[in-house]
Every structure is written in structure tokens, then in C-alpha cells.
């Protein structure tokens, strides 16, 4: 049921200027052509419209966050329908940096997921335990609460990103990722039955060109979410071509 694997680049609060963002985007757009993966770049909000004006056949845009509200007096926020209007196709929800620094709860994540699906923007819901956590308990709670009352899961992506692996160079092994992906799929099957097969489960956390292939071969994943590596065009392009 899952057609294509996906590679998502999360630029976080980088690069420092629009000029650099355009250069980075252009390099990735050219190099990632015919990679065999669906390629998604999530730049900071402020670069979205400039980058949208540079369509690439195999490349689409995602946002790094979204408001749970649909419109009105919510200073500083961006709605899912505004993203949709700009041509944005994906949105990261519940990234651990947002959960951590902005104190985002699973209830808020659930409301953002509903808001995104309503506006036809595909949510990439990030889950993951930190060091010392009870992994099964954390993932079960994040999935159960984050996906409450979601009826159509065909456009939902789950990104397994253990907090301890993000930006640390200490990646989760492909074997451990595979067993965790199985666990996630088991929980999703309990929640959604056969429809759970429509949900792509991807991995993120210190992925680079040396370990990417291991995840694709042995990690049981439907794609990868890259932070640091997405800011280095050669690295990102190399990884994208591992999907062939
Ligand atoms: P990293 O970040 O690849 O730099 O570890 C991943 C992420 O934050 O999504």
C-alpha cells in the first residue's frame, strides 16, 4: 500500500540568509533528481514562499511546525490552510525540540494533526524516547494521544526519532530501529487495524551517508528524516540516491 519511500530534510533554524537558503535548495533540487525517493525539504517558514517559486519535479516543501488554530487572533502563528495555500505538502509535528523548548503536549500535537489533515497538509508526527525512559510506555502514549480521533491515516507519517540520537552523532542502530519500528507498527495496528499499513514509519537521528543505507536495508523503515545532513547538499544528495 505504501508506494514510495520518503526522505525529509529538516533545516531547523538554518541557514542564516535567504540567499543561502536558495543556493542550498537549488543544489539539492538538482542533485536529488531521480533519486527514487520522495524528497521533502522543511526550511524555516520565512523561506517557504521564495523556495516555492522554484519548483523541482521530485521535490516538495514541508513546514517545521503549524498552529492548531485555523485563523484569527493568534499572533506569530501560521495555520495549516495558509501552508496549503502556499503549496506546502508536509508539516513536522511534535519534533522533540518543539516538545522540549515550547513545552508542546500530546494533546496539542493531536490538535495540530487534525488541523493539518483538515487542510490537506500531510503530518509527519515525531515520536521518540529519551535516555532512561521506558521506550514502550513513551511511544505508546505519544501514538495513542497524538492520534486520537484520526479517522483517515493514509496521509499520516510517523517519524521515530529517539531524543538521545538527535544531533548527537549517536545514532540508533539499524537493528534497534527495526525492532522499534515493529513495535510502532504493532501499536498502530491495535489502533487502526488494517489501515495501519498505510502509515509510513521513518527514522531520524544522526543519519548520515555512512549509515543511511543500513537503515534502508535493515531498519525496516519507509524513509529517513535528516537534520544536520540536510544542510550539506552533497551529503543529502548522496543519501537520497541510496533509495534507488
Ligand atoms: P539530526 O536531526 O539528523 O541532526 O540528528 C534530526 C532531526 O532533528 O530531525
Question: Could you explain the architecture of this structure?
Answer:
This protein has helices spanning 18-31, 48-52, 80-85, 96-101, 106-118, 135-146, 174-192, 212-218, 233-241, and strands spanning 6-10, 38-42, 59-63, 90-93, 122-127, 157-160, 200-204, 223-226. The chain is of the alpha/beta class. Strands 1-2-3-4-5-6-7-8 form an eight-stranded parallel β-barrel, surrounded by four helices. Strand 2 (38-42), helix 2 and strand 3 (59-63) form a beta-alpha-beta unit. Helix 5 (106-118) packs across helix 6 (135-146), helix 6 (135-146) packs across helix 7 and helix 7 crosses helix 8. The mean pLDDT is 96. The structure holds 2-phosphoglycolic acid (PGA). The site of 2-phosphoglycolic acid has 13 residues, from strand 8.
Please give the structural blueprint:
Elements (H helix, E strand, L loop, with lengths): L5 E5 L7 H14 L6 E5 L5 H5 L6 E5 L16 H6 L4 E4 L2 H6 L4 H13 L3 E6 L7 H12 L10 E4 L13 H19 L7 E5 L7 H7 L4 E4 L6 H9 L3
Parallel strand pairs: 1-2, 1-8, 2-3, 3-4, 4-5, 5-6, 6-7, 7-8
2-phosphoglycolic acid (PGA) binds next to β8.
Could you give a quick summary of the protein structure above?
This protein has 244 residues and is α/β, with parallel strands linked by helices. The chain contains 9 helices and 8 strands.
Oligomeric status of the shown chains? single chain
CA gyration radius, whole angstroms: 17 Å
Tally of helical runs: 9
Q: Please indicate the percent range of residues in DSSP E strands (runs of 2 or more).
A: 15-25%
Mean pLDDT level: 96
Total beta strands = 8
Helix and strand pattern: EHEHEHEHHEHEHEHEH
How would you sum up the major sheet?
Answer: 8 strands, parallel, barrel
Pairing-aware structural class of the strands and helices? alpha/beta
Question: Distance between termini?
Answer: 18 Å
Shape: globular
Helical fraction equals 25-40%
**Low-pLDDT residue spans:** none
List ligands, each type once: 2-phosphoglycolic acid
Spatial ordering of strands, largest sheet: 1-2-3-4-5-6-7-8
Amino acid at each position: 500500500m505504501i508506494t514510495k519511500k520518503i526522505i525529509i530534510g529538516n533545516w531547523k533554524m538554518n541557514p542564516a540568509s535567504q540567499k543561502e537558503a536558495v543556493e542550498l535548495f537549488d543544489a539539492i533540487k538538482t542533485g536529488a533528481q531521480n533519486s527514487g525517493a520522495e524528497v521533502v525539504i522543511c526550511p524555516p517558514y520565512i523561506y517557504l514562499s521564495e523556495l516555492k517559486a522554484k519548483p523541482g519535479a521530485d521535490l516538495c516543501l514541508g513546514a517545521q511546525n503549524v498552529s492548531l488554530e485555523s485563523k484569527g487572533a493568534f499572533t506569530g502563528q501560521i495555520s495549516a490552510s495558509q501552508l496549503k495555500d502556499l503549496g506546502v505538502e508536509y508539516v513536522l509535528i511534535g519534533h522533540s525540540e518543539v516538545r522540549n523548548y515550547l513545552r508542546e503536549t500530546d494533546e496539542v500535537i493531536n490538535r495540530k494533526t487534525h488541523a493539518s489533515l483538515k487542510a490537506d497538509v500531510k503530518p509527519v508526527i515525531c515520536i521518540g524516547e529519551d535516555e532512561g525512559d521506558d521506550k514502550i510506555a513513551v511511544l505508546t502514549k505519544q501514538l495513542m494521544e497524538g492520534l486520537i480521533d484520526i479517522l483517515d491515516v493514509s496521509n499520516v507519517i510517523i517519524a521515530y526519532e529517539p531524543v538521545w540520537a538527535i544531533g548527537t552523532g549517536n545514532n540508533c542502530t539499524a537493528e534497534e530501529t527495526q525492532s522499534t519500528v515493529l513495535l510502532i507498527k504493532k501499536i498502530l495496528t491495535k489502533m487502526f487495524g488494517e489501515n495501519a499499513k498505510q502509515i509510513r514509519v521513518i527514522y531520524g537521528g544522526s543519519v548520515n551517508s555512512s549509515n543511511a543505507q543500513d537503515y534502508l536495508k535493515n531498519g525496516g523503515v519507509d524513509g529517513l528524516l535528516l537534520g544536520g545532513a540536510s544542510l550539506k547538499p552533497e551529503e543529502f544528495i548522496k543519501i537520497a540516491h541510496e533509495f534507488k
